[in-house]
Amino acid sequence: MSSVRDIMQRDVVTVTTDATARELARLLADEQISGVPVIDGNGRLVGVVSSTDVVRLAAEESHVRLVTTAIRAGGDLGSDDDTDEPADQDPFGFFLPEDSPLADGALLAELPESRLDTATVEEIMTPVSFTVEPDTSIAELCEFLVRGRIHRAVVVEDGALAGIVTSADVLRAVASGKLGS
Q1: What stretch of H or E contains 168?
Q2: Cα–chain-centroid distance for residue 66?
Q3: Can you point out the beta strands (E) in the chain?
Q4: What pLDDT digit, counting tens, does each position of 58-114 carry?
Q5: pTM of this structure
Q6: Separation of alpha carbons 154 and 169, rounded Å
Q7: What are the backbone dihedrals phi and psi of residue 39, each rounded to the nearest 5 degrees, phi first?
Q8: CA 48, CA 129: separation in Å to the nearest integer?
Q9: pLDDT in tens, 105-140
């Protein structure tokens, strides 16, 4: 095993330029990945976007105010200021009863729209510049990733998206003994 072709992922998750940052965040979370290639309406590769881009955008939201809500034993919502009755605290929403006012997402619908809902992937992506070919050696790939201080490279063959290769793919190959010393 000596080339990117041997360790790259061929089944590539992509996102389109018009997706919102929130849709991107959901995709990354659902797929348990940290970044994806970006394609335009014609399916052409135009960039890459990562969870770091979403975090950077979220950090710009200086007007966001965090509050906590107590959930009372009867399913009523209590506020931080209301301390007359003890509350069953569930700060992360893991144990919400099905009839909870929070369970159907109605409370989230009342939140003001944020940049995560209006910013598109095209606005936060990095234009493609981190590409390699399938026949690139693993040593060259590693040097490329380190020099660019990046964790993924898009694999392009004959001008088309052929796959993606990440630093985790390299580590997986080393750990499994597929790469020699």
Answers
A1: helix 167-175
A2: 22
A3: 15-16, 35-39, 45-50, 70-71, 77-78, 126-127, 131-132, 152-157, 160-166
A4: 888 755 444 544 444 555 555 445 455 444 554 545 555 666 655 555 555 555 578
A5: 0.68
A6: 13
A7: -120, 155
A8: 9
A9: 555 555 557 888 999 999 999 997 789 999 999 999
